[in-house]
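Annotators were shown the component list below and the corresponding predicted structure, then asked to write short factual statements about the assembly.
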Amino acid sequence: MTPFQYERASDVSAALAACARTGAQYLGGGTNLVELMRETIEHPQVLVDVTGFSRNIEETEGGGLRIGAGVKNTAVAADRRVRERFPLLAQAILAGCLSADPQHGDGRRQSHAAHSLHLFLRRRRALQQT
Amino acid sequence: MRWNINRREVEREVDVRTSLLDLLREHLHLFGAKKGCNQGACGACTVLVDGERINSCLALAVQYQGREITTIEGLGAPGALHPLQLAFVEHDGFQCGYCTPGQICSAVGMAAELRKGVPSYVTEDLAAGTIPLSHDELRERMSGNLCRCGAYNGIVDAIFETVGDIAAPVPKREAA
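Structure shown to annotators:
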């Protein structure tokens, strides 16, 4: 893994400013990013940790929901309002389609999408090296 | 850097690239969590953070300062086994034992999810009043933990005996 600088963003504007720099990336649960960094497919110079952001799901006008950036997938899928009003979203998360992030808590293995992306990046890197 | 691991404060200076799993094993010599695949597929490294299960191999240790980390060493000890550990012994829930710490930490996390009413991929009715822990539910919820010995029947029996009576309630509707 290529060395990087770790920062924890206190709020959205701080995160935006921190990530505007060259080579900076956001860090959430890290499931995909950390693995890609370990393979040196990704090599950010700065990681801006945004896991401390809002974990609230709030009602919006017109019957929508505003999901805080710090809300874990499992919490979204477990939310009564999501399950009743946006069941497809809950089902997609539970099927692991959106991220299947083991760090999101439901213990499922990586999604096919994430795995395919990973394989694609590995093959692309292999081709670049030949 | 400082962490709270198994109800004890520990302090170490480690490279920011260090995974939580490597912190536990290489720096703190807590060898319960195992490095199986090191890419989040096998579940052998499962630990609990604030009561939720995570794959510690894909977690950067630096991110988990100030959180309550629990490993298998913090769940039970010789002579004072966790109920799940007793049940795993009773039901032959392992052969070689490599995946067992991850299985048990994962089952503890799964039980907490059930109590909170978290649904799973096989939950048929997301709006149902309760989600009984069926065999399908249990197997799906434990699908992130692999056992190459194939001790699954014993694992399922042990978990069923210990947490099988939890029927997940659906979270109450939020006050408008």
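Statements collected:
1. The helical segments of chain A are 12-19, 31-38, 73-78, 80-85, 87-94, 112-129.
2. Chain A has six helices and five strands.
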